[in-house]
Design brief:
This protein is α+β, with helices and mostly antiparallel strands. A hairpin with a 2-residue loop joins strand 4 and strand 5. The longest helix has 11 residues. The mean pLDDT is 88.
Length: 150
């Protein structure tokens, strides 16, 4: 059975003549396979065998100010980036809004993902972002890959 999971990032409020936009990252799984879809600057990290890496790349344009190049709510069609692959038992995934890795270092995020239980990991990550005085909306979803066997 497919298990879709999504994480929305903060909306970017419009200036005159600009549409509001929000980032999204979605993970869908079916047995050992997964598909990751994202638009904007929401992130997905994979922790495997003690090593963490970011699976997504930000869809932003850098100019006088940082703007999203792909997102929900922008003019035109939503064109998410798609990555498919396999999952392994023991993998841990983090879907989060962009402010989290801006406020909390990736090293600290990895340490929390390695040490915290699945029930507490997302709350600890958000709490660490708040302690770091993050003023943006923070969101985090932590997923463990397990077998179907008891």
């Amino acid at each position: 059975m497919a298990v879709p999971t999504a994480c929305f990032s903060r909306p970017i409020f419009p200036r005159p003549r600009e549409p509001a936009a929000a980032s999204i990252v979605v993970l869908a799984t079916l047995q050992e396979s997964c598909a990751l879809l994202w638009a904007g600057d929401a992130r997905c990290y994979l922790l495997r065998d003690g090593m963490m890496r970011c699976l997504t790349r930000d869809h932003v344009e850098i100019g006088l100010r940082r703007t999203l190049s792909r997102a929900i709510g922008l003019r035109g069609h939503l064109v998410p980036e798609v990555l498919s692959g396999g999952l392994q038992v023991g993998d841990r995934l983090l879907l989060c809004s962009a402010p989290l890795p801006s406020a909390v270092s990736e090293r600290s995020i990895a340490e929390i993902l390695l040490s915290a239980t699945i029930e507490k990991a997302a709350d600890i990550l958000v709490q660490e972002g708040l302690i770091a005085n993050c003023r943006d909306n923070l969101s985090a979803i932590v997923i463990d890959v397990k077998t179907d066997e008891p």
